[in-house]
Amino acid sequence: MEIQFTAELLPQALGVMVKGMGGIFAVLFTIYLASVLLQKLFPEMK
What we know:
Elements: H1 9-41
Protein name: Oxaloacetate decarboxylase, gamma chain
Transmembrane segments: 20-38
Keywords: Membrane, Transmembrane, Transmembrane helix
């Protein structure tokens, strides 16, 4: 089964990729912020 990249399929694929990357970056950024806040609140825990 071959996937044909047509003019209609490409924007949809790009949109899915952007949403996926955005979700990943949002999760990573949230984890990063949480770790920074924990280090500020509990500096003795390292």
